[in-house]
Amino acid sequence: MTIKEFEIQYALGSLSEYTKDQLAYDSDTSKGILIILSTDKNYSIRYRVAGNFNTPKEVLTKLSVDKDWYVKWRAIRHMSGDLNK
Prior knowledge:
Elements: H1 3-12, H2 17-25, H3 31-37, H4 43-51, H5 57-63, H6 69-79
């Protein structure tokens, strides 16, 4: 899926939670899509983005102050290099 296709489907709300979850988890997902998913209302999507090794550092920094402690914890662990421990 291209970033343009994703943007359209995301804006229309036509992506299932499952699809968003899979994109957020997949290490082949583009940084552009991860940036958009990092603002998703579903905390579990943001959690997956925080654990994706392709997520840009500036997105991890924003997620490290997320309103959900679970997302925040995951982003901080990722930035510290402690994600797989």
